[in-house]
Amino acid sequence: MAREQGGAETINYEDTDVLDALKEMTAGRGPDACIDAVGMEAHGHGLQAAYDGVKQAMRMETERPIAVRQAITACRNGGTVSLPGVYGGFMDKFPIGSLMNRSLTIKTGQTHVQRYMRPLLDRIVNGDIDPSFVVTHHIPLAHAPQGYDMFKNKENECIKVVLKP
User: Fold this and answer.
1) Chain CA centroid to CA 102, Å
2) Which architecture, in CATH terms, is 2-108?
C-alpha cells in the first residue's frame, strides 16, 4: 500500500536484510529518521526473533523489540528515531549504547488522536486527502468483535474496518 498509494520505497524484511538495504539506499549513511510504528506486535525472524520468543515464553520479556532495534541500528549518527508504536512492558537487548554514542534523538508516545482528528477530518471533507483506499471492509457495529479478529489475523485481505452503527 505504501508503494502503490504513497510512492514509498519498501523493503520486505522477510527476504531482504533491512539494515543492508537502508545503508545501500543512503550511500552508507543510514536514514535521517526512522519510525517504529509497529511496537510490541513486530514480527521478525532469525536469532533475535527466536531469542525474544524464548524470553516471552519464560515471561521475562513482554515486547517484540525487533523493529525498534532495527530503527536504532539503521538510523544515521545524529538522527531521530520515533516510536509511535505501542510498547507496554519489558524489553531485553535494547541498544542504549548505540543511542548514546551515536547522538540519536528518540521521540516516543502514542499518536495524539484528539489533537489531529479535527484537522484531518476537515482535510478529508475538503477533498485534500482521500483515505478511502485504506478501508477494505464495512461491517455493522454489532459485528465489531468479528471485524477485529479479521483485522488481527490478517484474514480476507483486511487492512481497515469501518463500523456502521
Assistant:
1) 22
2) 3-Layer(aba) Sandwich (3.40)
